[in-house]
């Protein structure tokens, strides 16, 4: 098991671990914005930057995806690192001045305002929603669209996503809470000829997707999106009627 | 027919030789994209038509680019027993007269550029002589190839066959010594010996990074894993270069041969060529080259009886500058969007589909057959202490004679610019030059004394990039140049990491402050602070080098930024800071500007200087463009 | 198999690459060339054929410049904005084309006759500024040459005359 130091502290780390994992396990705080333990490291927010000394050379790396090595000396805070983190959060604060998580992080890093003309976005493009949908849910209902200054997260062609199962994992992981979903009791379809009531539905607001909710055969209460139950049932190899009852009625 | 032994290759070489030096007149027309843009396609048709009409027996062959872009369309002619003569420009209108002169067994002296007594060949023990004996008197007035200043300092390795062979003929490539290096590698050398030779040659990446090719190969060969890949990048889309394209269009086989040798050395059975979508002709010629090589068994199984198997697949890129970044390119090859990932584990160890992968630039690969064929010592005899061999340079921008050259490392930019590019056009002054594209730098004219060397250029704050040299004259505004490159990067950034995506956006805003005249010293300080974070914290080299051009523009052309702070654009480029006016003293009242103005902002009576309505003027510059006496001022 | 001709193009493109998922970009190139864009229908059909999520096709179609999700005009004009051409005022050429054809920025004219886009280096730096109409390269263009009918200069496969006639005729028809 590799021996290394983080901020001078001697640490023995498990093989294959990242600097961030090891630091956090040892009570050393490194700020992150695009990292989630359940997801593969992404290395996009760059807040977790640290300095590593490998003997032959010293360089700045992102701790979330840098594997620990024998003899590594890691510094999580110095003048450069602090200046870089401050600039990064200032850039994010410029993009999302009203996102609570960004403001909290700015506070924590001692940045009170931005010197650039502000925008009013809420999404910081950390990509957690896209990644959770791919890596954990396996649906790949959403993706990045465009690139550079126009990059955004979107459902295909900015329309209803046929792959979204309405699980809400994206809502759950979003650090700035800019993804929302809600269940409605009386969804309405609008046609040229008139409207039609379709009953319970889950609405994924950002993905322009509405999924009818399956109701419990016994008590009539909504369980979950029908499509979600279909997909999960198929994956788990359950009988078609295995998910007909809500948790309460099953017991 | 399959080439299974070195003897087979030799036989084919003889056949190719006959094709290269036929008994009839061989007329070679340059047909790279640049030549075609200048009408080479029509010229070929005209020559065919005229030759038939005049019953003149000749072989018309499309060849690659000889680099003399300003003389295009260029045509070279070999009349049996006479020196090879280059002509240019030969336009469609010139063809009847041109063919008449040739049909009479003579020379079209009006259009002759230079003559060559012998073939340019790196591999022939004794170069092929077009003509025996002394030069005929009537040809003496045509300059000899060796005396043409344009070619004097050039050494052609990658472009050795460009303009001589038909790029769509493998036989002609073989006749020039092609695939002999491959035969040598797979039949006489172990993979380790091949790598040793490349390492010894000190060949460094021609894509701009300058990393040792031999070291990269060694790391990839030694990396654990079964399947491994060799990759060729033809997609580094620096805006303002055409070298890759020209190389591929002129001699696709040298790239292919290099890649096959690399595959053998590294132990890869599969190669990929990632080619930008903007190169349709290069793509077509490369495809043909692969088909031909496969037909002769130079690709496929048991190549030259060595037991080595190798295939090559072409992948068309989607047009993304960021795909010059190795990890982004590999993502593109896998069919995903070109987002880079960190390279804490090198791609040589874990690259394409997580397998060991060696990626080199197209020009790097083109050098490989020569290194193996002529030996590392020969190669490293060219160049400087740490930069060996040659570099293909595309010279464009404000130069008299835009061109494509291949010069030894260590050549001074001054020589390249003045002797090959012909210096600045009349009435203009060179202000700066740009190398390395958006990730390079802009350097002031006085720094033309720099030489072509990885280290020296790095110290000066730029890099070789893929070899574009763009001359910038006094008509350009350096603030605008900084804006241009930053805008480019904003569009080309993949948008994954914060410092690059958000940083470039803010950088552009800061520069725009100057173009509209509200920039301040504080803005310059903020640019510096922002640039520091971008350079240190961006995920890939695109972001890390994104502030480079801006910073060097500020460093070397601070006076222009200061002028913009005062609301002045000295070059008259930044629209918000200029007003057009008509100088009545200079005006000849020709009325051209009145006709040119798309919004009818200029009016006047014949005989007197027109007036310009500022309310209507959209500052498009159409009037200035047509004014012969420069009476429109800003 | 689908009988819709647009989808047939798709089928043959998929077939050409053996239906391999990693050939997504190559297949998309074929579609882009044949149909001028990657439409939503094509993307959805392709996702089914290759068994990949449509989000992946959409993501690639919007990431790479070679693809467009909006349909292109019957005649597609590319204006090179590489450094060399930019220094020779290619931006003005782009603006002028937009003004002549009534297209704001990049995109297609209302009637779908023309579309215009800025491209990176076309590799003809020495002949710049260059533009291309339907893949035919015109060299040494200038903003002033766009609406006017210049002399019968024959340039490459394309003449200024031809290029500008197309545009001028279009304006007259309007």
Low-confidence stretches of chain C: 149-166
Sheet with the most strands: spatial strand order of chain C: 2-3-1-4-5
CATH overall fold name of the largest domain in chain C: Glutaredoxin
How far apart are the termini of chain B? Answer: 68 Å
Residues in β-strands, percent of chain B: 5-15%
Account of the protein in words:
The complex is a heterotrimer of chains A (251), B (634) and C (174). Helices cover 25% and strands 23% of the residues of chain A. Chain A contains seven helices and eleven strands. In chain A, the strands form three sheets. In chain A, strands 2-1-5-3-4 form a five-stranded mixed beta sheet, with helices on both faces. Chain A starts with a strand and ends with a helix. The model of chain A has no long low-confidence stretch (mean pLDDT 93). Chain B is α/β, with parallel strands linked by helices and 634 residues long. Chain B folds into five domains: 11-145, Glutaredoxin, CATH 3.40.30.10; 179-379, NADH-ubiquinone oxidoreductase 51kDa subunit (Rossmann fold, 3-Layer(aba) Sandwich); 390-473, Roll (Ubiquitin-like (UB roll)), CATH 3.10.20; 478-565, de novo design (two linked rop proteins), CATH 1.20.1440.230; 579-633, Alpha-Beta Plaits, CATH 3.30.70. Chain B has a five-stranded mixed beta sheet with strand order 2-1-3-4-5, with helices on one face. A five-stranded mixed beta sheet of chain B has the order 11-10-14-12-13. The model of chain B has no long low-confidence stretch (mean pLDDT 92). With 174 residues, chain C is of the alpha+beta class. Chain C has helices spanning 5-16, 24-35, 40-50, 54-63, 83-87, 90-101, 160-173, and strands at 75-80, 107-108, 114-119, 131-133, 136-138, 154-155, 158-159. In chain C, the strands form two sheets. Chain C has a five-stranded mixed beta sheet, with helices on one face. A two-stranded antiparallel sheet of chain C has the order 6-7. In chain C, a hairpin with a 2-residue loop joins strand 6 (154-155) and strand 7 (158-159). The N and C termini of chain C lie far apart (41 Å). The chains are: A alpha+beta (251), B alpha/beta (634), C alpha+beta (174). The interface between B and C is large, with 65 and 52 residues.
